[in-house]
Amino acid sequence: MKKRRTPTSLLCLSISLGLSLTLAAPGGLGAQAAAARPEAVPRGRGRTDSSCGGPGDKECKRNEFCQESTIGQCPGGRAQIEGICATPPQFCTRIFAPVCGCNGQTYANACEAHSQGVAIAANGPCYCTSNEECNPGTYCQTPEGTCGPEGKCQPVPEACTDIYDPVCGCDGATYPNACTAARAGVSIASTGACAP
């Protein structure tokens, strides 16, 4: 019996400067990613139209999205900033280099944003007000001592040390150290144990 080869999927490596490198990588991940992608791919600011800005209001093809031509300049809008029609990547790495999408959502990296058909508004996370607004594996961290109203989506640490340096979390609980508070998805209200 002859084995059927799975089509090549794309691997998009994000570089912190906002550049992308696309390499061919064998495997069936492209088909799985395509199956998980919604029917209508959002473009630019989460729109599903094919407009890509510019003087003639350039149109993208059905399988493309309007990517930023310069990070920080979302395509379309009143300024009619012109974007670049691009095909969304089908597979991305797990590199954590957060970007803020033109739709106001934070993505783990530029490739993740582009795979969802979203242009990049800025390097770094968008502001958030709760953990629910952040991607899985991240939490809404507010500056120490503020406990809101706005924070930035930051990665949840995978492991922490046993060093005891207590902090009071914004949830009113005492944590052994700042890392364990972050691991619980909690911002720091103050150093030291919480008042009883």
Summarize this structure briefly:
With 196 residues, the protein is α+β, with helices and mostly antiparallel strands.
Structure notes:
With 196 residues, the chain is an alpha+beta fold. 10% of the residues lie in helices and 24% in strands. It has helices at residues 29-36, 110-115, 178-183; strands spanning 9-14, 20-25, 65-67, 84-86, 99-101, 106-107, 120-123, 127-128, 138-141, 151-155, 167-169, 174-175, 188-191. The strands form five sheets. Strands 6-5-7 form a three-stranded antiparallel beta sheet. It has a three-stranded antiparallel beta sheet with strand order 8-10-9, with no helix packed on it. The protein has a three-stranded antiparallel beta sheet with strand order 12-11-13. A hairpin with a 4-residue loop joins β11 (167-169) and β12 (174-175). It is elongated. It starts with 8 loop residues before the first strand and ends in a 5-residue tail after the last strand.
If you compute it from the alpha carbons, what radius of gyration comes out, rounded to the nearest whole angstrom? Answer: 20 Å
Order of helices and strands: EEHEEEEHEEEEEEHE
Share in β-strands: 15-25%
Say how many strands there are. Answer: 13
Shape: elongated
Structural class, please? alpha+beta
In round numbers, the mean pLDDT is: 75
The helix tally amounts to 3
Biggest beta sheet summary: 3 strands, antiparallel
Low-confidence stretches: 1-48
Distance between the termini: 71 Å
Helix content: 10-25%
- Across the major sheet, the strand order is 6-5-7
List the helices and strands and how they pair.
Layout: E1 9-14, E2 20-25, H1 29-36, E3 65-67, E4 84-86, E5 99-101, E6 106-107, H2 110-115, E7 120-123, E8 127-128, E9 138-141, E10 151-155, E11 167-169, E12 174-175, H3 178-183, E13 188-191
Antiparallel strand pairs: 1-2, 3-4, 5-6, 5-7, 8-10, 9-10, 11-12, 11-13
